[in-house]
């Protein structure tokens, strides 16, 4: 046996695990379907700007150990995510805070904003059986109509009164003039991009790109004592129980002759008519002297259009199917699973690192 571990997928999860295994003297082979390492956190340089190819990635965490861990592989800047919402040409601050309420109602004091929201929330009586009622019961009609409705409908491809209320459990409201999107104490962007982190994590591993493990499972598996699989379980089992459902995103990139096109990294388009949900201007994530700028428009689309599984549809059917695949996976000897695809879940990067470190300790001691 040539290797101790075959790691399927060179994303964040697989790379942290491979790094930890190699730090304990294990030999690792990494097989990756795409033509690059990094999974969805992959960044590439264009015109001196780090482009987040699979959507804006902002590292934020309250987990001190995870924060210290990632610092070992990159220098993080002090980027604070303060996105703007564009509703039919009017700009509102996010998350919903006193700046948003001032723009919306002209109020200046927290108690004035709170009483407007309180009054509007009363509109909902009776059972909360759809997302529209859920959102209005949390933040009132004005915020729902201008900042939640169109965005959510584009994201899920369905009307808010047809979507289940569980999609939105919380809509945080802040009665301070604070535009920091996240509450976590640690936040930033790696100056050199995320791909540089993955390269460092994978130092010492043999990496094979543009290779789908599932096309030749037996042969790849025979090369290692154990297999960590970070791909989708329905693919591992050739969809024998059915296919997982996802919502996907199509990115449209544009190079613009400007050094500051929208003034901020992230603008959400919250009306229903604009077909994209967000525009990212990558140069605002990290220092650059580039004479041009790159933007990416994000269009939510069906999984069938891109073939890129981004957001799992975690309804009852989705959960049941995942449980059934987990049962099958439990019967495979030498198979370990991890990461967002194999777990059929959405995890932020910090949770991904945490889970990979926990697995490493359990598996490798
Ligand atoms: C649009 C978007 C925006 C996000 N923004 C943020 C953010 O701002 N902050 C944050 O903390 N997190 C964010 N995330 C979450 C972040 O992307 C994940 O935490 C992280 O990518 C998970 O890493 P992973 O290794 O589990 O999965 P992935 O990155 O998907 O890696 C899995 C890898 O396995 C490969 N693979 C799959 N099947 C096979 C196969 N059969 N053979 C070979 N290789 C295979 C894939 O090609 C992929 O490279 C965002 C996610 C999305 C979708």
Produce the secondary structure layout.
Blueprint: E1 3-8, H1 12-23, E2 28-31, E3 43-46, E4 49-52, E5 59-61, H2 64-71, E6 84-87, E7 90-93, H3 98-105, H4 110-121, H5 131-139, H6 141-156, E8 186-188, H7 194-201, E9 206-208, H8 217-221, E10 224-229, H9 233-236, E11 246-256, E12 266-269, E13 278-281, E14 293-302, H10 303-306, E15 311-312, H11 316-330, E16 335-337, H12 349-364
Parallel strand pairs: 1-2, 1-10, 2-9, 6-12, 10-16
Antiparallel strand pairs: 3-4, 5-8, 6-7, 11-14, 11-15, 12-13, 13-14
The protein binds flavin-adenine dinucleotide.
Tally of individual helices: 12
For CATH, the homologous superfamily of the largest domain is named as: NAD(P)-binding Rossmann-like Domain
**Could you name the CATH class of the largest domain?**
Alpha Beta
Output the CATH topology of the largest domain.
Rossmann fold
Contiguous runs where pLDDT drops below 50 for at least 5 residues:
none
Distance between the termini: 21 Å
Give the overall pLDDT as a whole number. 96
By secondary-structure content and strand pairing, the structural class works out as alpha/beta
Number of strands: 16
Q: Bound small molecules, which ones? A: flavin-adenine dinucleotide
Rg, rounded, reads: 22 Å
Helix content: 25-40%
Spatial strand order of the main sheet: 7-6-12-13-14-11-15
Which CATH architecture of the largest domain is right?
3-Layer(aba) Sandwich
How many separate structural domains?
3
- Give the CA-based shape: globular
H and E string:
EHEEEEHEEHHHHEHEHEHEEEEHEHEH
Sheet-strand content, in percent, reads 15-25%
């Amino acid at each position: 046996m040539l290797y101790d571990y075959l790691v399927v997928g060179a994303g964040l999860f697989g790379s942290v695990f491979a790094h930890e295994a190699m730090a304990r003297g294990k030999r690792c082979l990494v097989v990756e379907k795409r033509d690059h390492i990094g999974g969805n956190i992959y960044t590439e340089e264009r015109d001196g700007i780090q482009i987040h190819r699979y959507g804006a990635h902002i590292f934020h965490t309250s987990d001190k150990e995870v924060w210290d861990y990632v610092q070992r592989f990159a220098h993080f800047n002090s980027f604070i995510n303060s996105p703007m919402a564009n509703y039919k040409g009017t700009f509102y601050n996010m998350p919903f805070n006193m700046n948003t309420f001032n723009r919306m109602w002209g109020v200046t004091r927290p108690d004035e904003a709170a009483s407007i929201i309180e009054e509007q929330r009363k509109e909902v009586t009776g059972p909360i059986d759809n997302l529209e009622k859920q959102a209005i019961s949390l933040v009132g009609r004005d915020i729902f109509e201008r900042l939640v409705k169109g965005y959510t409908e584009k994201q899920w491809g369905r009307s808010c009164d047809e979507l289940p209320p569980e999609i939105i459990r919380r809509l945080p409201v802040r009665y301070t003039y604070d535009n920091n999107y996240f509450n976590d104490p640690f936040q930033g962007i790696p100056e050199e991009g995320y791909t540089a982190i993955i390269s460092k994590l994978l130092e010492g591993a043999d990496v094979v790109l543009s290779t789908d493990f599932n096309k030749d499972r037996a042969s790849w598996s025979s090369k290692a004592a154990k297999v960590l699989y970070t791909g989708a379980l329905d693919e591992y089992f050739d969809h024998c129980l059915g296919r997982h459902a996802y919502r996907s995103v199509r990115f449209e990139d544009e190079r613009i002759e400007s050094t500051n096109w929208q003034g901020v990294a992230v603008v959400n388009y919250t009306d229903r008519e604009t077909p994209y949900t967000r525009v990212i201007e990558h140069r605002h994530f990290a220092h650059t002297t580039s004479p041009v700028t790159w933007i990416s428009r994000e269009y939510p689309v069906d999984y069938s259009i891109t073939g890129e599984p981004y957001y799992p549809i975690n309804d009852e059917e989705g959960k049941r199917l995942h449980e059934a695949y987990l049962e099958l996976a439990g019967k495979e000897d030498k198979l370990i699973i991890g990461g967002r695809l194999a777990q059929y879940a959405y995890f932020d990067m910090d949770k991904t690192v945490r889970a990979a470190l926990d697995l490493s300790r359990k598996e490798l001691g």
